[in-house]
Design a protein that fits this description.
The complex is a heterodimer of chains A (166) and B (488). Chain A contains 6 helices and no strands. Chain A is mainly α and 166 residues long. In chain A, helix 1 packs antiparallel against helix 2 and helix 2 packs antiparallel against helix 3. Chain A is globular. In chain B, 76% of the residues lie in helices and 1% in strands. Chain B has 21 helices and 2 strands. Chain B has a two-stranded antiparallel sheet. In chain B, strand 1 and strand 2 form a beta hairpin. In chain B, helix 3 runs parallel beside helix 5 and helix 12 packs parallel to helix 18. The longest helix of chain B has 32 residues. The chains are: A mainly alpha (166), B mainly alpha (488). The interface between A and B is large, with 31 and 52 residues.
Chain lengths: 166, 488
């Protein structure tokens, strides 16, 4: 059961991710991204990270994607025109990617040759209380420093979106 | 567990420079709407004051070394050394920005705030002792720099520069993050010290996974330091960005990225060192060769310095390839000298560039020696230091790097690096020839006198370059003592 759930949602995530890149219309790409986020949240849930799974749905699949879609619609973006890719990128892109994936798979297989499957419910400690505890004790400093990151994102958006240079 | 909830005073003290700069940065954003359009430079003075206070706090923090916040950060000599570099770069950037921003009609408080926040990010990077912390610092520094590169929003070249830097930079960050994820997967922790312990203590260290992680992090960090083969973005971004921002990018974020490069590769990946050494070896050689030979053909001075910055990244990668304490120390010394000489050279360009940066070709500098002899003399010092002529900081920087390479039996890399420096001398000297031997150009004929702020941005690095060239031992001894702390 766990294996079937994992395989199904992992496959959905990969297919949706490919679709994000391959679709020519921005709205279709954005909706595929919702699919990736949703499938990922199920994978988190299988790993026992309930809080992260919920946040993934509410924040990413919900709030962030709604903003994306709004912006795309406001800009009235059309399907992108086909671009010319260099011949080298076309010829080498896929083989290099496959080689990279093979190396990664090999590394993981070597490191964990016969690890048993993760059973649903085996992991605990991904609830809101645990996450909150970690955020405010061990990871207090990164949590605080991220506020600077958000602040510069806002300042940067204001700078780049201002009406005219005075 | 709860006793670590409230940070102690000592911990706050160790993080004080970043706290001060974040507060001053926020203050600037709040002051910006209430200052009149004529007095925006006041905000720059506030930013400089903040940086000087932070510099003081750095020395106070250095007197109380150690880890803080569940060993998220560690204040050691290495961190202090790089903190001083990035704060100094911040001060020099603001000094060279006043005139430039006034000329472009874009003197705004957000500019100074973004510089301060970017410096906070770099400072977090160099004190971080934990991969998540390093990542957050890198993102703060990068995002602020992307915005700064496109600060003159109505300038097409600014837009090109910002969008190229942003797209490629985010892509490279993805690789870095993947590398961090693999390290966590292999060892179950992101704390540099714990990762190192986990690798040393395990009977069968996950060599393959760590090598892949090292490769991925090399891609991410190689982009940030513009080492080959991830250097393609550098000329376009450096050319398009406002000149003071280019100076900032080529010194501050680069030094901080090299700091984490050293910290991660010398501590975490030490055990797989013989795997990544050929990779860095090839990258160092390619960076030096591509940078120097491409620079030979440049007419635009900013583009020339962009290629030269690729070459200089190659020299520092040589020091990293040495994989020794003296290699680390020489890289630290070189980055300090390079930050100073590059800041100075770009300050001269910012002065000559003119409104809209219409005169930034090397030929526009013709006759500078006759018209403004002091400016020309200072630019000469920076160019000689970039070549690596004795009595300048650049000489000892290169000397220590190649010495470290030879001690680690990297004979060929040292020979090819030295040949490369000889090639580099040609294009730096060409600037001097144009400046002193040719008739004044239309630009130098009517060059306005240099304002005080820009003079500070020239004299300070010139003094620093000469100090490093005449009394190198003081700085080098500090660097060597700090390099020993790595890996504890």
């Amino acid at each position: 059961m766990d294996l079937i759930l994992f395989l199904a949602f992992a496959a959905i995530a990969v297919i949706c991710a490919l679709s994000v890149v391959l679709q020519t219309h921005p709205i279709a790409s954005a909706l595929s991204l919702v699919g990736v986020m949703g499938a990922l949240s199920v994978l988190y849930l299988l790993l026992g990270a309930e809080f992260i799974a919920m946040v993934q749905v509410i924040v990413y699949a919900g709030a962030v994607m709604v903003l994306f879609v709004f912006v795309i619609m406001l800009l009235n973006a059309d399907a992108e025109s086909p671009r010319s890719t260099s011949a080298m990128a076309k010829a080498l892109g896929l083989p290099i990617f496959l080689a990279f994936a093979a190396v990664l798979a090999l590394a993981v297989l070597r490191l964990f040759p016969d690890t048993p499957l993760v059973r649903f419910g085996e992991f605990t400690g991904g609830g809101p209380a645990d996450v909150g505890m970690a955020l405010f004790t061990r990871y207090l400093l990164p949590f605080e420093v991220i506020s600077v990151l958000i602040l510069i994102a806002i300042v940067g958006a204001v700078v780049l979106a201002r009406k005219e240079i005075d | 567990m709860l006793d670590s909830f409230i940070p102690s005073w000592a911990e706050l003290l160790r993080f004080m420079p970043e706290i001060i700069l974040s507060l001053v940065g926020s203050l600037l954003v709040m002051l910006e709407p209430v200052t009149g359009p004529k007095s925006k430079s006041m905000l720059g003075h506030v930013a400089i004051a903040g940086l000087i206070v932070a510099l003081g706090a750095t020395f106070v923090a250095h007197a109380n070394p150690g880890a803080a916040f569940s060993s998220m950060i560690v204040v050691d000599g290495f961190a202090t050394f790089f903190r001083v570099i990035v704060f100094t770069v911040g001060i020099l950037t603001i000094f060279s920005s006043y005139q430039y921003l006034d000329r472009e009609g874009s003197n705004r408080g957000e500019y100074y705030a973004l510089i301060l926040f970017s410096v906070v990010g770099q400072s977090v990077m160099v004190v971080a002792n934990e991969l998540i912390m390093i990542f957050i610092g890198l993102e703060i520094s990068s995002i602020a720099t992307y915005v700064l590169a496109g600060f003159l929003r109505d300038d097409k070249r600014n837009n090109e520069s910002a969008i190229k830097y942003f797209l490629l930079g985010s892509f490279a960050t993805g690789f870095l993050l993947y590398g961090i994820a693999l390290i966590y997967g292999a060892t179950g922790t992101t704390d540099l010290g714990e990762v190192r312990q986990a690798v040393l203590q395990s009977a069968e260290p996950p060599v393959l996974l760590l090598s892949v992680a090292a490769g991925l992090m090399f891609i991410g960090l190689g982009f940030k330091v513009s080492g080959a083969p991830f250097q393609m973005w550098t000329p376009d971004v450096y050319q398009g960005a406002p000149t003071p921002v280019t100076a900032f990018m080529s010194a501050g974020p680069k030094a901080a990225a090299f700091a984490i490069f050293l910290r991660i590769f010398v501590t975490v990946f030490e055990s797989v060192g013989d795997r990544w050494e050929p990779l860095i070896w090839a990258s160092a050689l390619a960076s030096m060769t591509i940078g120097n030979f491409a620079a030979l053909q440049q007419k635009n001075f900013k583009r020339l310095l962009a290629y030269s910055s690729i070459a200089h990244a190659g020299y520092v990668l040589v020091a990293l390839t040495a994989r020794s304490e003296i290699g680390t120390a020489s890289a630290m010394f070189y980055l300090a000298a390079y930050a100073l000489m590059n800041m100075g050279a770009f300050a001269v360009i910012a002065h000559v560039a003119g409104k809209g940066e219409t005169t930034v070709d090397v030929s526009d500098f013709a006759g500078l020696g006759a018209k403004q002899p002091v400016t020309a003399a200072l630019l000469t010092i920076f160019m000689l230091s970039l070549i690596g002529v004795p009595l300048t900081g650049g000489f000892f920087g290169k000397f220590y790097i190649f010495k470290a390479a030879l001690e680690s039996k990297l004979l060929w890399l040292a020979i090819l690096g030295l040949l490369n420096s000889a090639v580099a001398a040609y294009y730096y000297l060409r600037v001097l020839v144009v400046m002193y031997m040719e008739e004044p150009s239309a630009r130098t004929e009517n060059l306005e006198p240099m304002p005080m702020s820009l003079q500070a941005a020239l004299w300070l690095p010139a003094a620093g370059v000469l100090f490093l060239g005449i009394f190198p031992s003081a700085v080098l001894e500090f660097a060597s003592a700090s390099a020993r702390l790595l890996g504890q």
